[in-house]
From TrEMBL:
InterPro entries the UniProt entry points to: Bact_CCA-adding_enz_type3_sf, NT_sf, PolA_pol_head_dom, PolyA_RNA-bd
Keywords: Magnesium, Metal-binding, Nucleotide-binding, Nucleotidyltransferase, RNA-binding, Transferase, tRNA processing
Superkingdom field: Bacteria
Family: Belongs to the tRNA nucleotidyltransferase/poly(A) polymerase family.
Domain (Poly A polymerase head): residue spans on this chain: 26-148
Protein name listed in UniProt: Polynucleotide adenylyltransferase
Any one Gene Ontology molecular-function term assigned to this protein's record: nucleotidyltransferase activity
């Protein structure tokens, strides 16, 4: 079909024109076509072509184009033209799938390649003559804000179970109203396939959902088909909604902590999160130090000593969500006070302990810990001399 000048919407066609000179049958595919139709900026240009990957490499290299074999087993190479990467994939069909991986074979049929894609809005292609090829009415679905699978929804999910999560992520961004009934039914009937996915793939999709649009509606729809509880046991949709109402930062780990409130350790292990994110989830579940808008200046300083500032701020959002669930000047003021308070530092260390006559070893650590506790009990205010005087007095009493 003819288009209305979609190619004219591209900011820079230099590298694309080079590809079309070398691979005249190639087309833009996937998200770039979808975003051109939506009239938004396109950042990554993915290209498909009927030529096998080894032929593609030979053609590009013969013209001096740098080629990176990024995924030859799946027919993908990356051409770098004027510093810009273009991912080029040979047309494929699935020979065998197991719910996670596919064995593919090359094809020259554009419709066959489009038929193996996940959603109709991702199955369109655009050729160098500015013609849109749309075998499954993806442009109509895009205009209608309707996300649906290409062909049989159940078969698409059986090919790759991660598409169950991807469906809800795409529906949140491009859909409107009630999600596609066929898709939801197919997902509900194939929940056991989720167990075969890697934790990392599940976590990636879930965290993207948690930073996307229409979070509450999307998670509720996932809960309705049984998918959400398969990933997050006993999801706390109420606390997450209250966190969103508080206008907390758009942080996926913070939102995950609200969604799986009290299950930080379990979720960290189940989703195989990075070490940094694992530590955050565990600390979110802690109840020390206490946080409240009416904290004294001494309590603020003690809190800064007990826990990292970023964790304190995140915990303050979770507490605000749990306690009031609405924006609050008082809680914002608490966060300002926490941020503006300089980091208190206990003024004694090993050198000072040795100067006081304390020999290195377990005993030194015990004396320093005792001095640090006294310092904290006094609002983290006493300086070096006051802390030393306290320790010397305590040592004197202990030796009597």
């Amino acid at each position: 079909m003819e288009t209305s000048g979609l190619l004219a919407r591209l900011d820079d066609r230099g590298g694309l024109d080079v590809l079309w000179r070398l691979l005249p049958e190639a087309r833009l595919v996937g998200g770039s076509v979808r975003d051109l139709l939506r009239g938004i900026s396109v950042h990554d240009l993915d290209v498909a072509t009927p030529e096998p990957p080894d032929i593609v490499q030979d053609i590009l290299k013969a013209d001096g184009v740098r080629v990176i074999p990024t995924g030859l087993s799946h027919g993908t190479v990356t051409a770098v033209i004027r510093g810009v990467p273009y991912e080029i994939t040979t047309l494929r069909r699935d020979e065998q799938t197991d719910g996670r991986h596919a064995v593919v074979a090359w094809t020259e049929s554009w419709e066959e390649d489009a038929a193996r894609r996940d959603f109709t809005i991702n199955a369109m292609s655009l050729d160098r003559h500015d013609r849109l090829h749309d075998y499954f009415q993806g442009s109509q679905d895009l205009e209608a804000h309707h996300v649906r699978f290409v062909g049989n929804a159940g078969r698409r999910i059986e090919e790759d179970a991660l598409r169950a999560l991807r469906f809800f992520r795409f529906d949140a961004r491009y859909g409107r109203g009630t999600p596609d009934h066929e898709a939801c039914t197919a997902i509900a009937e194939r929940l056991d396939l989720i167990d075969g996915l890697s934790a990392e793939r599940i976590a990636s999709e879930l965290l993207r959902i948690l930073t996307g649009p229409r979070i509450q509606e999307t998670l509720q729809a996932m809960q309705d088909v049984g998918l959400l509880a398969r990933i997050v046991p006993a999801p706390n949709l109420v606390l997450l909604r209250r966190l969103l109402m508080c206008e907390a930062p758009e942080d996926p780990v913070l939102r995950l902590s609200a969604l799986g409130h009290g299950q930080g350790e379990l979720l960290a292990e189940r989703l195989r999160l990075s070490n940094a994110d694992r530590d955050r989830l565990r600390l979110f579940d802690s109840d020390r130090p206490d946080l409240a808008p009416a904290m004294s200046a001494d309590d603020i300083r003690r809190a800064r000593v007990e826990q990292n500032l970023s964790v304190l701020l995140d915990r303050s959002w979770l507490l605000q969500a749990a306690l009031i669930g609405v924006p609050s000047i008082e809680w914002n003021r608490l966060r300002d006070r926490l941020t503006q308070e300089p980091q208190p530092v206990f003024p004694l260390g090993g050198k000072e302990a040795r100067d006081a006559g304390i020999m290195p070893g377990p005993g030194m650590g015990q004396w320093l810990a005792k001095g640090r506790l006294w310092w904290m009990n006094h609002g983290c205010l006493p300086g070096r001399d006051a802390c030393m005087a306290y320790l010397l007095d305590e040592m004197g009493e202990a030796s009597e």
